[in-house]
Amino acid sequence: MQTTTKDQRASRRFRHKCHLVCSLIHQEDCYTVIKKDHSKGGLSFRSRLEFRPGTVLCIRNNACEIQSLTPEAWEGVRSISLAEVRWCHEEKELGNIFFDIGVQYKDMAL
Q1: Inter-residue contact 89 to 96 (CB < 8 Å)
Q2: CB neighbour list of residue 76: distance below 8 Å, 6 or more residues apart
Q3: Which of 3, 39, 71, 79 has the most beta carbons within 10 angstroms of its beta carbon?
């Protein structure tokens, strides 16, 4: 289990559960994760796999139902993004091990 400092988002979070697809950079394997919430600067999700802090992921919002979001909650919704894992907490639920993970969006300046 990897643990770093507590989450310190600068902007408001919006709870919104849906499936996302993530992959490690330069790898073909994709993993389905469940988004828990998002903000302007990042998001958190639950995964069966552990992703260590500092890992950069490509996260895709393929079929996530977003029509139900309020206009204010649209802030921070991205269809695809690179994001860095900031924290990872092991959780046990009904005898299964999951990882709650927080990521920060990477700015992609051109």
Answers
A1: no
A2: 11, 14, 38, 39, 40, 41, 42, 43
A3: 39
Share of the chain above pLDDT 90, in %: 36
Q: Which tokens is 97 given?
A: 């091990």
54 CB-contact burial (10 Å; exposed 0-12 / middle 13-18 / buried 19+): exposed
The CATH number for 14-105, chosen from 2.60.120.200, 2.40.10.220, 2.60.120.260, 3.30.565.10, is 2.40.10.220
Q: Are strands 14-24 and 42-47 parallel, antiparallel or unpaired?
A: unpaired
Distances (CA, A) of 83 to 55, 71, 106, 107, 108: 8, 23, 5, 9, 10
